[in-house]
Amino acid sequence: MSERYDSLDRHYNIIEKLVKTTSTLFWINASLSIAVFFVENYSFVKNLLILVFILTTTGYFVIDNYLSILKIPEVEDKRRVHLLTKSFDVALDNERTNGYYNNELEPSIIKLGANIFENSLFAERVTHEMVKRERIKVGTFIALFIVALLIRTTELELVSILAQTLFAGTLIPAYVRLEVLHFRNKTIFNCLHDIFLFHSQRNNENNEILSVKLLDCFVKYESAKAYSGVKQDSKIFHKINGEVKQEWQEIKLSLNLEGTH
Fold first, then answer.
1. Distance between CA atoms of 223 and 181, rounded to whole angstroms?
2. Cα(28)–Cα(64) distance, rounded to whole angstroms?
3. Distance between CA atoms of 191 and 213, rounded to whole angstroms?
4. Is 194:216 a contact under the CB 8 Å cutoff?
């Protein structure tokens, strides 16, 4: 079996490192916000923590906006162009992949649909694992916030710090975007499954309705990624790759997506 290769990995590796950096900075900021509360009587330590907080907050702001406004959209544009290249066998870019689009269909709108079908399967599985982890993180933070509210001796300033970290920061918005991305990937996968299940490829290859449905799924898939701005976890991808790849092989066989059409 040929080795899996993706020349776009060099871009995604940069994104992954920056995402880890922003995550680290976020928790540093959250910790510093709480720590400042407990050193109220130590002016030097408090001022030092505030200075570090300003620096880390600035760093977080710059990196997070660079990712969401510039880097992730740029790389997703490259991925979208390459998806079209592989689907229609038209050289629109200089990127190279091997083992990422696993079907032997002739270049066509059907092949594009099959590629999105495969992508949505992997995306749904990866985001499913990611969202389970985030649910624990957000749930823990909400539980701490509720406990702080219930304890009457808790200072209001500390409660406000927890509330700001939880609601005014990026923790919950990022979690919600991940949940939405997972839901949309699942919806797109199910939609494509129904499309390929109820349409014979040989009889509907030039069917306008089928083409429009597949294009609609393509647009929904790309808009879901653009809306979320979420970088899928590559470690989870590689961990579940074998299992999901086998599932994809079974789906191809059951829906007659294996051969050349």
1. 10
2. 15
3. 9
4. no
Provide the pLDDT for residue 3.
Answer: 63
Name the residue range of residue 218's domain. Answer: 105-261
* Residue 203: per-residue pLDDT: 56
- Amino acid in position 99: G
Q: Name the β-bridge partners of 97.
A: 6
State both tokens at 164: 């700001």
Residues of the chain with pLDDT under 70: 1-5, 99, 152-154, 157, 166-169, 200-206, 258-261
Per-residue model confidence (pLDDT) at position 1: 46
Q: Does residue 92 form part of some domain?
A: no
Specify whether 33 is located in the same domain as 133.
Answer: no
How many domains does the chain fold into? 2
Distance of CA 58 to the CA centre of its chain: 24
Q: Are residues 137 and 248 in the same domain?
A: yes
Which of 86, 113, 136 terminates a domain? The answer is: 86
Does residue 219 lie within any of the structural domains?
A: yes
Provide the phi-psi class of 38: left if phi over 0, else alpha when psi is between -120 and 50, else beta: alpha
126 in the same domain as 162: yes
With 0-12 / 13-18 / 19 or more C-beta atoms within 10 angstroms meaning exposed / middle / buried, residue 23 is middle
Give residue 202's pLDDT.
Answer: 54
pTM of the predicted model over 0.90: no
Q: Are residues 193 and 143 in the same domain?
A: yes
Tokens standing for residue 66: 């660079």
According to DSSP, residue 4 is labeled P
